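Q: What would this chain look like folded?
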Amino acid sequence: MAPNTATNTGPVWDWAAGHGPVTGALSATTGALAIATTGAATGMPPGWALAAGAAGAIGHTVTSLRDRLSARTVSMRAASWLVGAGWTTWAMATGPLTWAALGSLATLGVGLGAAARSTLLHEEARELEALAAAERQVARELSAERRAIAAEWVDRIQRVCGITVRVLAVEQWPTGTGFTIDAELPPGGTTYDRIAREAARLSADARLPHGCTASASQGIDQGRVLIDVTTVNVLAEEVTYPTDYGPLSLHTGIPWGLRTNADEIRAYLREQCALVVGPTGSGKTNMVHTILAGFARATDVLTWVIDLNAGSAGLPWVRPALTGDGEGMRPGVDWLAADYDEALLMLDAAVRIAKHRKMAYQDLMSQANTDLLPVSAQIPQIMLVIDEGAEILASSDRQMRRLAEKILEVIRIARAMGLRTVLTALGATGSVLGNLMIRREAKVRVALTGGETEGMDLGKQFPGSRGLRVDQAPYKGSGFMGTPESPAALFKSWRILPNQIRDIVAATSDRHPVLDAVSAKAAGPDYARRWDHARVAWMHDHAPVPAAPPSAACTTGGGLNLSALREQPPATAAESEADSLARQFREQIDAQFATAPEPTGPEPVADQPPATAGGLNLSALRDEDNAARTAALALLLAAGPEGTGASAIARALADEHGTSRQTVVGWLKTWTDDGTAVRVGTGTKARYVHQRHLPGNPAQD
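A: My prediction, written as structure tokens:
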């Protein structure tokens, strides 16, 4: 049986350790006694011991000098060898086992130990002094650099701003991209914004590179100012999203990008809403993906996304799970709405959750002694990310106004209950920022400028901030970000790539919380069935259909084969208005465009491939789907010069034909591509106008 080493409580010897003052003296004295006893017994010449001691003294002197030890240490080591060798020589000649020899050896050992201890302390003190001297030298050099910076900026502030400050400290950033000046303002009521207003002139006077600024902010008290000076342009380079997809929490902040000193800036959204503004090409969509990535990594957040532009903001976070990229993978967002109806269901569910949480969690909040719902992985916060949501709030469209009312209701009633919003907008204009609720609740604000000056009123988006100019951030993904914890200043958004989105969805799939039972009950079947096939079928409707090769019939006149629309019975008295308008439209199409005759025989034309579903053979319009398409075209024609939208057409056709909005969107895109219709406006304000109603069209006459 193997011995039980766990019960061994004896001393453990470290044979690799060096000698200390006590063990060194003990080793030297016992060695000298052993050599003297052996030499006396064997008749060894006493001079050999003296020669060995002299050689040891010389060797230790050389090594001590090489190690740059002090003279005291060199002398002590040499003396120890010579004294030990002298005693050994004497003991071999007179007898090592006499009381005189043993007593003198013991005295010698005590002396060697005391001398070794003294020299060891001296060496330690000498080493510490050398380190301190080196640090003092570095401090003197750094202090000289800081003094030069302080003197330079005192002169610059006096020259540009007309005030004299006293610099108290200069802190170099660890990233080497700039420094911060802590200065005391002159007496007489001078405030920090006296310097903040002149940020652009200070930057120019300092000859800072483009993309670098000298921005002033409040100091530790109202008589102090902090001046952040960026010396390296970190905005120009593209910085990819960090590959560390570790867990985050709403309470510790969600990182949204980098400051000019390369520090992460975090958004704390437990009680705050957020507003992200960015014109086309500024990197706003990429910023939305960065925000969604942070929410996906959080263990106490569920993300709901509304994007009426075909759901493009949330689709990359949903498709990896829906297409089966990973077994059991959950979507990166908890709910995605791409049209008006789904968005209304989502907002209604959010309002119900907020109201039900107020009643159901009273005991929990009482136990926690707080008026805020304790958000956790068990009771997650719901973050509504609404792409171009600010435009919805400013829209005059009836449907959009209804959505706006729901969004504002969520913002107004749901702060304590853990429902907050992130709205995006195309510009920082009065129409976007004119809503008092947005200005009051959306304290986390981002302006991605990309060098765009139109519609970017930074003074409205960051009231009270001075010296912010669009031309300071001319690069894609760069702009300004301000939070209640951090004043508005330059920042750079991370670049997140599509493959990273898939990786984040896979890495965080098992981390997403589940909506608590209380909230799920309030949300009802609208939430429970959000991933039903009928409601997500549009997500799969993305593959392009190849165009059919042109047939002989189609190439005859160069137009569309609309003969199926001509073979209709004459209108009756009971004919609906939509059918009448459709008939008129077909007659106008025949009059203005060359059309091909419909094939009459069952035999296909020789050497002609059969028509595909995506071709231009419109004889299939005789079935129910094509009847719905004809009715939709008639409604578009009846809308007149004002035009209409996909949602309005889909609602008009829903009862009779059961047509979905996504189908109508596909028809409108086809008609836009072939010139039948023209799209006016973008996003939620998009309208489609029939070409007959365009100015200069002969059909108007």
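Confidence is low (pLDDT under 50) at residues 543-578, 589-622.
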